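Exercise 7b. C-alpha cells:
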C-alpha cells in the first residue's frame, strides 16, 4: 500500500525497542492495565482541484490564505502548465501573466504576499526560474521577474527570497530580495545538494547524495552560511537514506528551522521524522502500520504526512508535540480517491496530491479542518 504513497510524495518499530518496552512493562505494576485508546481522528472536508479536460494535477505549495499552486496537464497536450487555486476558482497562470515571451510550466510555491515561483521556458528553449507577484488590483498585470541564475525555483519565503537550482542544474542558489543571487556552499564533505523548501530566515531544507548513492537530509543555515547533515533514524542500517521535504520557523522560538521528512528504519520501510537542534532527528512513528512519511510543517509546529494504518490502508496524519500523530478522517472522501501527502498552512488546511483510481492518475486536492 505504501509504495503508492511514496510515489505520491515525491519522494517500524525495531525489535530491540519492542523488547525493551516489554521488559519495562514486566517491571511495572501497572503493566496489566489496558493501553489507553489512540487519540481521536481529526475531521476534514476535501475538495478536488480539477479543471476542464485535466488529465492529472499536482499541488505543490500553499500560503496561509489557502491559495494553492501546482501544475496540471490537459487532454491533447504533452506539457505541464501552472495553476493557482484561490477562493474556489482555478486560474491558469499563463492566462494571467504578462511574461514577455516566456511560457510558464510549473508553480512550485506561493508566499503570504501572493508571490509565486516555478520555472518557464523561452522561445529558444532555454529554461529559467521565475517569480510572479500577483496584482493588487484586477486591472494590474502583476510583476513577472526572470531569475536568470536559476534553472528552477522550488521555494519562496514571505520576504520574497527564492531558493532553487542553478543554471548548471547542479548547485543550489538563493535569490535574496534587494541583494541578488548567492551560490550556496557545499556540504562539509564537499558535495553539492538540492533544495526542497525555505523558511523566513532563509534556512533551507534539502538532500545530498554520497559516493555510494546514499541520500541524506540536509539543512542550510543562513546565519552561519553552513550546511548540516541531519543524519538518519537508523544510522547503522546498511540501506539507510533520509529525505527532507519541508522546513519552517516556529512562532516564538529561537531555534534554527525545524525540518521534516522521512528516513529508512529497515529495508523498504520508512518513518516520518522531525529534526530540531535540541533533539536531533526524532521518529514520529506511524498510525499502526509499517510506513510513514512527513511532507509539510507549519509555523505552529503541526506536521502533515501519510502513514500506513493497522489495517494496511494509507491515511493522512497531523502530528503535534502535544497530541502526537493523529489520523485525518475525511468525511466526504470520494470512494475512488486516495489521499497523499502535502503542505499544511497556519490554519491547518492541507493541500496535496492524491490518486484518482478511476483515471489511474494523480489529482490535486485541498482539505479543510472541520470544527
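Sequence design result:
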Amino acid at each position: 500500500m505504501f509504495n503508492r504513497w511514496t510515489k505520491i510524495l515525491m519522494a517500524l518499530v525495531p525489535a530491540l525497542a519492542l523488547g525493551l518496552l516489554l521488559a519495562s512493562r514486566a517491571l511495572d505494576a501497572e503493566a496489566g492495565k489496558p493501553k489507553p485508546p489512540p487519540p481521536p481522528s481529526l475531521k476534514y472536508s476535501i475538495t478536488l482541484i480539477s479543471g476542464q479536460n485535466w488529465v492529472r494535477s499536482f499541488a505543490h505549495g500553499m500560503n496561509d490564505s489557502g491559495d494553492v499552486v501546482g501544475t496540471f496537464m490537459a487532454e491533447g497536450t504533452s506539457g505541464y502548465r501552472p495553476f493557482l487555486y484561490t477562493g474556489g476558482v482555478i486560474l491558469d497562470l499563463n492566462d494571467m501573466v504578462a511574461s514577455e515571451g516566456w511560457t510558464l510550466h510549473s508553480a512550485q510555491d506561493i508566499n503570504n504576499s501572493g508571490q509565486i515561483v516555478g520555472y518557464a521556458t523561452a522561445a529558444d528553449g532555454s529554461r529559467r526560474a521565475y517569480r510572479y507577484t500577483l496584482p493588487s488590483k484586477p486591472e494590474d498585470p502583476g510583476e513577472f521577474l526572470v531569475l536568470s541564475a536559476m534553472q528552477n525555483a522550488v521555494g519562496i519565503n514571505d520576504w520574497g527570497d527564492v531558493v532553487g537550482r542553478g543554471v548548471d542544474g547542479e548547485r543550489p542558489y538563493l535569490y535574496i530580495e534587494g541583494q541578488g543571487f548567492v551560490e550556496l556552499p557545499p556540504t562539509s564533505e564537499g558535495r553539492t545538494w538540492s533544495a526542497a523548501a525555505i523558511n523566513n530566515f532563509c534556512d533551507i531544507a534539502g538532500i545530498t547524495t554520497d559516493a555510494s548513492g546514499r541520500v541524506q537530509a540536509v539543512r542550510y543555515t543562513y546565519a552561519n552560511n553552513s550546511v548540516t547533515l541531519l543524519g538518519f533514524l537508523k544510522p547503522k542500517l546498511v540501506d539507510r537514506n533520509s529525505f527532507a521535504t519541508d522546513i519552517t520557523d516556529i512562532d516564538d522560538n529561537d531555534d534554527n528551522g525545524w525540518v521534516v521528512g522521512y528516513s529508512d528504519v529497515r529495508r523498504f520501510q520508512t518513518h516520518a521524522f522531525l529534526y530540531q537542534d535540541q533533539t536531533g532527528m526524532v521518529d514520529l512513528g506511524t498510525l499502526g502500520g509499517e510506513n510513514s512519511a512527513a511532507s509539510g510543517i507549519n509555523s505552529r509546529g503541526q506536521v502533515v504526512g501519510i502513514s500506513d494504518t493497522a489495517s494496511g490502508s494509507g491515511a493522512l496524519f497531523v502530528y503535534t508535540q502535544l497530541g502526537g500523530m493523529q489520523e485525518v478522517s475525511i468525511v466526504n472522501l470520494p470512494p475512488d480517491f486516495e489521499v497523499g501527502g502535502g503542505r499544511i498552512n497556519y490554519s491547518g488546511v492541507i493541500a496535496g496530491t492524491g490518486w484518482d483510481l478511476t483515471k489511474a492518475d494523480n489529482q490535486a486536492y485541498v482539505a479543510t479542518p472541520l470544527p
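Instructor comment: The chain has three helices and 30 strands. Residues 3-36 have pLDDT under 50 and may be disordered.
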